[in-house]
Fold these 2 entries.
Entry 1:
Amino acid sequence: MAYKAESFIHDLDKVAKARQEFSGYLSAIADTLTEAEQVGETASGKLGLESTVDDLELVSRNLGEGVFRLLVLGDMKRGKSTFLNALIGENVLPTDVNPCTAVLTVLGYGQDKRVTVQFKEDREPEPLDFDTFKQRYTIPPEEAKKLQEEGTSAFPNVAYAEVQYPLTLLEKGVQIIDSPGLNDTEQRNQLTLGYINNCHAILFVLSATQPFTLGEQRYLENYIKDRGLSVFFLINHWDEIQNRLIDPEDLTALHEAEDRVRQVFRTNLTPYCQVEGEDRYDDRVFEISSLNALRQRLRSGSLEGTGFSEFIKALNHFLTK
Ligand SMILES: Nc1nc2c(ncn2[C@@H]2O[C@H](COP(=O)(O)OP(=O)(O)OP(=O)(O)O)[C@@H](O)[C@H]2O)c(=O)[nH]1
Ligand SMILES: [Mg+2]
């Protein structure tokens, strides 16, 4: 049976409550230790527990915050923004053949739909409507390619854009970060990389029609491998395998073509799917079509039969375990 988005939200709710409770306990322990240190100062002497108290307070704050951060990474035009729109069920993020995402975009909960651009330097945040945001902070692919080669950013003074949206998934504490297409140069990736350790999971979007390019290999090798990160791989554009056949109705040819693509990814992604010495490929790699999923979601609200259900189930298991 397909896993329902409502079950995911229900499970997140339970975990958020448990986290809140645990956060309260930790905070109480931190208070007790602080008090003990204050008493000790005038009596038998301090125990030097300041850093323990700081750690407890930090963990307590993070847990109490109840945020699950997901970072979406991938090369240009893999369908990152389309995937996110399908996941949240609305056309929130700019996606197109043409303009490219040019700034890191943090999607979180807000009662009113709004976008605010946050700057690196001492400059007031810029509130924008969605259309202006799409026009002002996306760039044409030629420019994106040129900037990629130069290793520079289109908007070097922008820290990130904050998109607030009244969606249940976001209200339950899921925060999703859309990123501009990846690049080999450390400098341009710095902002995105800065986010990697702050996230609970990385959703790495690949394309079935360009299986595992050199750029992707290099990126995974340099920034993801052996860093203890939890990575889900989404092999997007799966529908295009069929479209590219001479006879799209030839099912034998379709299965053969799909198996060839599957094999390339299986060989290359297996090293990234080892968890505590165990091969977790099937829980980490998913074949999807974000475009079809988005169309279906906008039409009927459901993601059934799109490959998304399996992914959401695995993500839920990971986030709530
Ligand atoms: N056929 C097909 N097209 C897709 C799929 N996912 C995305 N697209 C199309 O691919 C193009 C690029 O999609 P985006 O979501 O903008 O890609 P992106 O990775 O966010 O691109 P950048 O932000 O520029 O890096 C759009 O025209 C989408 O409609 C898919 O699964 N199948
Ligand atoms: Mg994008």
Entry 2:
Amino acid sequence: MPFNIRIVFSFTVLMIILSFPFNSYSENNSVSKLSIGFSDGDITPNLGIKPVYIAGFGHNRKAEGVSDPIFTRVFVLRADGKKYAFVCADLIGLFKDQVDEMRKELKDYENVMFSCTHSHEGPDTLGLWGQTPFQSGTDPDYMNSIKNITINTIRNAEKNLTPCDTSIAKVSLPDLLHDGRPPFVKMDELVTLRFNKANTQNPLGTILFWHCHPETLGSGNKKISSDFVGYAIKEIKKKTKGEAIIFTGAVGGLMTSLKLSIKNEQGVELKDGTFEKTERYGHLLADASINSLKKAKPVALTPITIRKKEILLPVDNPIYRLAKQMGVFKREIYDWDLKLNSSPNLNKREEKHPAAKTEVSTITLGELGIGCIPGEIYPELLLGKVAKIAEKEADYEDAPTEFEWFQKWNIPYKTVIGLANDEIGYIIPKKQWDEKAPFAYGNKKAPYGEINSLGPDTAFLISKAFEDLISK
Ligand SMILES: [Zn+2]
């Protein structure tokens, strides 16, 4: 064997020998990198024993049946030996106090993120929709069962942990959202994550981040339902043969499927408040997600970083204060911090002004950033589209513009989960706050929104907290 061939030969042998440990190392490494497990738990309330009040529209809407079962849906991620739970329940929302109760029994988790789809066709879990405005619509036994079922579902998802490959897709769907309040700004980007069993094309599950109120069945419906979410999930499961979860994001200001033109396959427009429209909307969303995945790109979802901050928000809304006094609202109330009060950006408040404690957090999954927002944020706050000059009829014409943290967040992919770990109501740009006449945009009466918000400084304080989290 000539000398140079011998060198090539020995080099090749050396490379083959070396490549064995390297190959097996990198394979093991990718296998141990990220695992995912899915599960869901049925949280459909029992009817016929106690009244079940349906949440979301008026008072005293008693459930008379079940259209489709409602669920708490979970995926668990495991990376670098740590576990993270993500929950989305077919409910109107849950207060932070209840989420923290659940977390006490999941201390082996690095993070538990509990959110709701904000369904307006499920049981009251906040207390606001009882027989009268002065009576809570929640049932303590049912609330307890949500907690227990969710914890069990997380444990079941954990048993299903499977090494996975991940891809991501985005698509803009303005035709699937109606914006009910000017300025008309929609967060219409559907983000879809696909998880396949590692090194195969076998789907484990699909996760959607979408920004619409599940309320297609309207205020007249008296049957418990997950609204379009359930129909969309069923369709995705059928077509992909994997699991599916939909998270609800920026739905303030007001993102809805009502008043939206949705046609059936024959081109006939479907009416609000019908199961036909609700099912069709669900299928359109499912198909849009599945189609977007044709152009999905591989995405790294590790390392995982969680950043959290607890903050106080002044409770200015007199209805909320009354609800707390009447025992309708079951959450801890704190004193507003007077030091914070001294900020020139905030309205002046007296000593002992009531405040709610909430939590903002960011979850960074490798190349994907998720802002976990404890309520219903107006999309203009995320998209940097709050008008620089307020309408002259707005209540706080000279209000400071909130921090544009979401626009500044420098990460390849980003989205938000709303009603995350709390439901504090609408998060409205202060420049758009409009309770006092005259009203902006030529409106004869006050726009809907403020009545379900803690107050005009909520958005500023939330955006400041996020600004701090992303600049850490
Ligand atoms: Zn809402």
